[in-house]
Amino acid sequence: MAPDKSVRTKKMLQLMFQEYYRVHHDTIDIPLRIQNREFGLENWDFSWICKKRKEVHEDGKENWVGCGRSGRSFVNLLKCPHCGAPGLQVTRWSRHIGYRTRDHLLNDLVKTVPHSIYHSAAFYSVPVARSMAEKKWQGAEIVFDIDADHLESPCTERHDVWQCTNSACGATGSGSHPDNCPDCDGTTFRALKWICDECLTAAKKDTMKLYDKFLTGHFGLDSDKIQLNYSGHRGYHVRVRDPMVFNLDSNGRMELAHYISGFGMNTSITTDGYLRVKPTGDLRNWQMPSIARKIADTMIEFINSIDVYQGKEPWVKSLKLYREDAIAGLKMNPPILSAKVKKVGPKYWQEIANKSVLLYGVDIDQPVTTDIHRVIRLIGSLNGKTGFAVTELTRDALTDFNPLSDSVVFNKGTIQISIPERGITVPEITIDGDTYGPFNGSIETLPSSTAVFLLCKGMAFIE
Ligand SMILES: [Zn+2]
Ligand SMILES: [Zn+2]
Ligand SMILES: [Zn+2]
Which ligand is nearest to the CA of 167? Predict the structure, then answer.
């Protein structure tokens, strides 16, 4: 790949982002207590340092390498441009950044124009300090991340591709890469993950469930204390901005995450006529009836939608035939596994319960919720992996939101790009209602929205 093409592409995208930030001040979200947040910038270019260091050789001889200089480069340098020493320290990240005011942040966005910008969910006394001890943690919003990547939507088989990195092999396949290459038994792969309406809709449905069932439902949180946004790529973020939760520690957040994902539910059911929950070390007595109730409600939800269930288990037919009886039993208190549902005994009820609880929870990315030092994308900024805006949404707006058109910001004119020939074909993509691709080894003139997406994805170069 010609480095000059790649550099030219990055510079052009950066200029486009700059123009966007120059004009769009209103849609940039200013986080609560901005002066207490740590910001992290992922840059288009690399910062490098040629550290002065002593090298000790096997024969005991020592010598000094490195000139101590530093600089920036759009190319990932392997050697110091001044002294030629290898082993530069290279990063695209600037961490421990702080902004005192809204203007300070907005001006810096136009000046530095990062590829992506993040801020801490936490509040710190000294956000620019290098160590956590010096930063002094003062609480944090609770953050949930729902990523299409985790949901294993069937469409990944259609649009995700991998290639074995063994240069003598180069085998390719669709979906997630195998543990071992079927051709050469190799274990390293280049993977391309893609997005489409189907997986983004699955992520959206889980986000609505998190919001409706758990946050405003079970937890009774006020909707004005919940901030919701599309990440600009594969998923959605939800932030709870209620001071009541700011001091919850990592363990407390872990419990929340477990509750929301329905962790451990399937292992705790007994099905001897009644639906009961086995006493375990994690559960207190008073919790068991309420968990049994939740499982019963989830089973009702599952049985109500049994007509669209794709599985071929022997109990499916019985549930369809005796649906009313099954639901009537589960609605009782305590819930009963109705004997009127013919051909379904304890073993099948257990299977039905296990299937149902998969419906109960929301597949959140747990470390994002439990890590109290995590950074999260700034709402209103641009996502450098796609060129889409990180879009703030109300709960009502979420219902009809289509990220592949509603988050597109570069929608004027066309751009000529080249897609190099590779082992991996660029899958088709539907943006703003029009479908383009698949591409492999061609020059195309595409609407800016689609061109920018392919450029940001690193699959194409500016011509
Ligand atoms: Zn040097
Ligand atoms: Zn291989
Ligand atoms: Zn998809």
Answer: 2
Q: How far is the CA of 146 from the centre of ligand 3 (A)?
A: 14
Q: How many other CB atoms are found less than 10 A from the CB of residue 275?
A: 22
User: How far is ligand 2, taken at its centre, from the CA of residue 182, in Å?
Assistant: 7
Give me the pLDDT at residue 279, please. 55
pTM higher than 0.85: yes
Band of residue 107 on the pLDDT scale cut at 50, 70, 90: very high
Cβ neighbours around 69 below 10 Å, total: 16
How many CA atoms are closer than 13 Å to the CA of 429, on its beta-carbon side?
24
Phi, psi of 382 (to 5 degrees): -100, 140
Which DSSP helix (H) or strand (E) runs through 358? helix 346-360
What pLDDT digit, counting tens, does each position of 55-83 carry? 888 888 888 999 999 999 999 999 999 99
Neighbours of ion ligand 3 (CB under 5 A): 155, 196, 198-199
pLDDT at residue 331 in the model: 93
* Average model confidence (pLDDT) across the chain: 92
Q: What is the mean pLDDT of residues 208-233?
A: 95
Structure-block tokens of residue 166: 């063994």
Tell me which ligand sits closest to the C-alpha of residue 171.
2
Which ligand sits closest to the CA of 82?
1
Count of beta carbons in the 10 Å neighbourhood of residue 60: 6
Interval 143-186: pLDDT, tens: 999 998 877 788 999 999 999 999 899 899 999 899 999 999 99
| Angle 118-123-129 from CA coordinates, rounded to 5° | 80
- CA 12-73-1 angle, to 5 degrees, is 65
When pLDDT is averaged across residues 325-354 and rounded to a whole number, the result is 89
- Which ligand is nearest the CA of 69, by number? 1
Count of residues for the chain?
Answer: 463
* CA 428 – ligand 3 centroid, Å: 11
Domain ranges of the chain: 156-192, 266-360
Q: Which ligand is nearest to the CA of 187?
A: 2
239: which strand partners? 143, 227
Please report the sign of the dihedral spanned by the C-alpha atoms of residue 96, residue 102, residue 103, residue 106: positive
State the burial class of residue 89 (Cβ atoms within 10 Å of its Cβ: 0-12, 13-18, 19+).
Answer: exposed
Q: From ligand 2's centre to the CA of 423, what distance in Å?
A: 12
Q: Which ligand is nearest to the CA of 51?
A: 1
Ligand 3 center–CA 2 separation, angstroms: 31
Q: Provide the β-strand partners of residue 256.
A: none
